[in-house]
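Take a record:
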Amino acid sequence: MTHMFFRKSTICLSLLTVISVALLSCSGMGPTVFIHKNYNFNFIERVAVIPFGNLSNDQGAGERLTHIFVTELLSQEAFDIVEPGEVTDALSKARISLPADLTEEQIKEVGKTLGVQGIIIGNVNESSLSRSGSGNKPVVTLDARMVETEKGQTVWSATNTEEAGGFWSSLFGTGGESQSEVARKCVRRVIKTLVK
């Protein structure tokens, strides 16, 4: 009888350990966020999303995440969004070659040209496949910020990292998310810190 109780206790303890590890691996850290406490976001009605820079080894990641960001931000219906073609044209006319590194004066100039109160600038810090168990899983990190165009100060900033799958998919070998799905999830989490 004692032996049977010991065996059941061991099984329960093992199961609790597995569940605890699963919950910890699924919980993630979430986005790191800055919001200017004294800024009135009601002032921002129209924004421009500047093409994101790409600090990863994944060619085209900046362009892909910029498109996803614009679509997801449009779906929130929180701001009027300048068409990407207009943004590219304004940057070209202002002879801006590194849009992810705009100066305060360039922000004010582009803001006036496009008639926007806010400019969103960002970088894809990571877009890669990391080794996990018997396969690879996508990892995406996005760093984005909104700068108001009157004074050129940052009023919102967020960084988030997402990776495919989790503990259960690694444990049981179930199919994970694609690079595109992970990128979309990463962008959505970043936008949720701005538009609630």
